[in-house]
Amino acid sequence: MRVYNFSAGPAMMPIEVLETAQAELTDWRGSGMSVMEVSHRGKDFIACAASAEQGIRRLLGVPDDYRVLFLQGGASGQFAAIPMNLTKPGDTAAYLNTGQWSTKAIKSAKTQLLNVDVLADEAETKYTAIPAAGSYVVPSDAAYLHYTPNETINGVEFDYVPETGDVPLVADFSSTIMSRPIDVSQYGLIYAGAQKNLGPAGLAVVIVREDLIGNARSTTPDIWDYTAMANADSMLNTPPTFAVYLLGLVLDWIDASGGLTAMAARNQAKASSLYAAIDSSEFYANPVAVNARSWMNVPFTLADSSLDAEFLAQAQQRGLTNLAGHRAVGGMRASIYNAMPQAGVDALIDFMTDFANQRG
Amino acid sequence: MRVYNFSAGPAMMPIEVLETAQAELTDWRGSGMSVMEVSHRGKDFIACAASAEQGIRRLLGVPDDYRVLFLQGGASGQFAAIPMNLTKPGDTAAYLNTGQWSTKAIKSAKTQLLNVDVLADEAETKYTAIPAAGSYVVPSDAAYLHYTPNETINGVEFDYVPETGDVPLVADFSSTIMSRPIDVSQYGLIYAGAQKNLGPAGLAVVIVREDLIGNARSTTPDIWDYTAMANADSMLNTPPTFAVYLLGLVLDWIDASGGLTAMAARNQAKASSLYAAIDSSEFYANPVAVNARSWMNVPFTLADSSLDAEFLAQAQQRGLTNLAGHRAVGGMRASIYNAMPQAGVDALIDFMTDFANQRG
């Protein structure tokens, strides 16, 4: 029996994707081999990777002057790889700090001999809000402005795209990529770990405007040198082939589900119903500023935190798993990425209502 | 129908492993979730990763003062990460060059502000031999000596472990790890990409002696900082969970198959039978010095290279796939890692005999 899995990542994947992978796990498309066993240099896998890249380009409308790279090391690896590729030692890069992932990106950037200019930091709101547009100024000499459109831990999301003038905008889209349409041309670089909306852990996708690459520091590891990887179609070394294959299946599933416009409607409906249930209850609360509430990660607290363990145990019995909040904030968190159906959110809301009636 | 897949990597995996993964792909051990969907911070996955580490420790007899790390970026990533962790800028590190993988490791090391001292280079033998023990002197001030115990492209393997005195020995075991017992205490650091003998692509295993870590350069990316990763049980960031899980299944399979002593006997028998077939034929040839012939990768040429395409096409028809040699050397190559049974090698030898009788 499958459960509704509210894990923040690795996260629920579409059952259709898992069933396809399962059906062909020992014999991929008549090859007599698993997709895990085929050479990444063979024409079948090259076509598979190219198809995944085309899926990203098609769904996101990636302009032709952007490269799409499949890398290893997750988004955390990119925290270091971005300065290596986009800056020289001593350059300035600007960051917005809206939570734990921004904080990690900033910390990593500081190890790369960079002048890190944090333009705004939501520490005083305990990372329950985002800086207002116009409340910070992007220095014109910054190599880029980095921000985190969605923070998974506090469930905080930007409701606007920062204006940066000529300064390239760099965004960690790990927890929100493919959840709705975006305008890629507003960004210099988009990156995302796969394990929330794209597939399994172990793959990072980087979408970068061509004019920003070609000047990596000489000490950049080959496998993170965007130009070297772009020139090698992301196969300078052996790629994580199974993850790339699953990415392709996930993108096909998004296509078959109506594309990103349909995903956006679905995701907005899921989030709205869950926030409405929380807001209409005296028993549950969400502390995030209304304009900054995430569609993807919905943290909430119980009026009596001594009931947390019982809440989680009863939820588990109803097949609602991984609802514990991040250890840094406690309480509950429901992560409701693309693969979570409205039925899962409805089941959660029903349970929350029952629990509040019973114990509230 | 499954084929015998002689790919150099990603490579054949044990069918028992694939079938287990297939059976539980949508419901891992009764969780109602795929192992790809569970949180890496949950107790089930932590136990899974710990079990994989224990499997490596048990099979290889890893001493207690070595750390076992699961990293991303493959062995190619470690080409840069090793200097970052084990040297300071300006240090000397010694390398032996026995083929394309050594050459890549050397090239990467040179980008890391290192004085790279290549003690021996088999270019003049076209990488068909290994430097004799005693033919090179390891400088006592070297941070380490790096070598590649097995080179996949030319099928060349060391038949001895280099003596280095007090200088730590660093070895890229990507294509030979778990193929036979080794004495880990002879090494300062062992690393391996998973996609030959350990599982799917996307995971690198590093086994490093504790006294060598703790002095990573300040610019080392967190996810490659051996100390930071050791302290976080390789979960500083989201690990490639499915690859770690499959590694565990592969290690269980090795255990169930009799462990590394049985693997060694099996692998030696497979290689011996194939080399004997080549050597006893006028139609096939292997150029590698007899003492340096690889158990894992057996390249061979046809007396008439104009028959190569026909050889490959007929082999494919018999269910013998991925026999084309690396593009750098041409001819044929049979990679016969742990998962290739003797029956697969026998089928190859039968076909080679038939083909030589027919066209020789």
How are the elements arranged and paired?
2 copies of one chain form a homodimer.
Chain A: E1 4-5, H1 15-23, H2 43-60, E2 66-71, H3 74-86, E3 92-97, H4 100-110, E4 115-121, E5 145-147, E6 150-151, E7 156-157, E8 169-172, E9 189-193, E10 204-209, H5 226-231, H6 241-256, H7 259-279, E11 284-285, E12 297-302, H8 308-317, E13 320-321, E14 332-335, H9 342-359
Parallel strand pairs in A: 1-13, 3-4, 3-5, 5-8, 8-9
Antiparallel strand pairs in A: 2-10, 6-7, 9-10, 11-12, 12-14
Helix pairs in contact in A: 1-6, 2-6, 3-4, 7-9
Give an overview of the whole structure.
2 copies of one chain form a homodimer. Chain A has 9 helices and 14 strands. Chain A has helices spanning 15-23, 43-60, 74-86, 100-110, 226-231, 241-256, 259-279, 308-317, 342-359, and strands at 4-5, 66-71, 92-97, 115-121, 145-147, 150-151, 156-157, 169-172, 189-193, 204-209, 284-285, 297-302, 320-321, 332-335. In chain A, helix 3 packs across helix 4 (100-110) and helix 7 (259-279) runs parallel beside helix 9. Chain A is globular, with a radius of gyration of 21 Å. Chain A starts with a strand and ends with a helix. In chain A, 54% of the residues are buried. The mean pLDDT of chain A is 97. The interface between A and B is large, with 67 and 67 residues.
